[in-house]
């Protein structure tokens, strides 16, 4: 998993999102188990969910798909979707079963959207609590609650491997958001969004800014 996190980190730094990360798309050299490849990049577009629900050949993909990647949430798909899929693979690797299973695609998607996965240690008592915590963070429903980068995940896994006391530590301390997502549609706030973008550009040039925002939800006038 650490090697997968390392590979994903390199891909994401190049602006590449896999979007189809499943256990079947990971190949390991059977000779020495040191060489690994991720295959089958790219995701079919979900043009008609009613049609997709009746294609059992796609069940494998939906076993690992993130909630936002189902197309049923108004959320953009970014590198954190790959991290959710990696969490599902990690879960299956340790528990011999994925976090959610169902032969009906509709029910499987609903589980990704609404069900909380059980702790991996429920199925494998040898899993330490900190690994439970790392995997469940990867499988968070909200992208903002997951690891924000594969590099941050790799840091935690390396610390776990090297640490003599593997009982507990604070995870995601070195996890950082690589870039600010400004693609979310904000209706009626074009002036404010442009102002925030300008502040972000200034901050990226080592000119720090501190911003506080307040007000009621919805569209309103700027004071």
Query: Helix proportion of residues, in percent?
Result: 25-40%
Number of strands: 2
Total number of helical segments?
Answer: 8
Radius of gyration in whole Å, from Cα?
A: 20 Å
SSE pattern, N- to C-terminal: HEEHHHHHHH
Instruction: Report how far the terminal alpha carbons are from each other.
Output: 50 Å
Q: How confident is the prediction overall: mean pLDDT?
A: 82
| Percent of residues in beta strands | under 5%
Structure description:
The chain is mainly alpha-helical and 223 residues long. 39% of the residues lie in helices and 3% in strands. It has eight helices and two strands; from the N terminus they run αββααααααα. The protein has helices at residues 2-13, 49-52, 59-64, 79-95, 105-114, 129-138, 150-162, 190-204; strands at residues 26-28, 36-38. The chain has a two-stranded antiparallel sheet with strand order 1-2. α1 (2-13) runs antiparallel to α4 (79-95). The longest helix has 17 residues, at 79-95. The protein starts with a helix and ends in a 19-residue tail after the last helix. The model is unreliable at 44-48 (pLDDT under 50).
Topology (SSEs and partners):
Elements: H1 2-13, E1 26-28, E2 36-38, H2 49-52, H3 59-64, H4 79-95, H5 105-114, H6 129-138, H7 150-162, H8 190-204
Antiparallel strand pairs: 1-2
Briefly say what this structure is.
It is built from 8 helices and 2 strands, in the order αββααααααα.
């Amino acid at each position: 998993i650490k090697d997968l996190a390392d590979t994903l980190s390199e891909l994401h730094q190049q602006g590449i999102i896999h979007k189809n990360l499943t256990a079947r798309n990971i190949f390991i050299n059977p000779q020495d188990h040191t060489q690994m490849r991720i295959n089958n990049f790219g995701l079919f577009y979900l043009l008609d969910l009613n049609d997709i629900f009746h294609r059992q050949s796609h069940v494998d993909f939906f076993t690992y798909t993130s909630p936002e990647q189902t197309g049923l949430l108004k959320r953009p798909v970014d590198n954190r979707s790959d991290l959710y899929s990696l969490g599902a693979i990690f879960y299956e690797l340790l528990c011999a079963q994925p976090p959610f299973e169902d032969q009906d695609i509709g029910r499987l998607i609903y589980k990704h959207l609404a069900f909380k996965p059980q702790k991996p240690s429920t199925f494998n008592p040898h899993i330490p609590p900190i690994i439970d915590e790392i995997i469940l963070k990867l499988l968070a429903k909200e992208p903002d609650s997951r690891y924000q980068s594969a590099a941050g995940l790799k840091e935690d896994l390396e610390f776990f491997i090297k640490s003599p006391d593997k009982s507990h530590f604070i995870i995601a301390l070195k996890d950082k958001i690589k870039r600010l997502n400004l693609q979310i549609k904000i209706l009626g706030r074009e002036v404010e969004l442009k102002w925030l973008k300008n502040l972000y550009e200034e901050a990226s040039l080592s000119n720090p800014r501190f911003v506080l925002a307040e007000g009621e939800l919805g569209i309103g006038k700027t004071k």
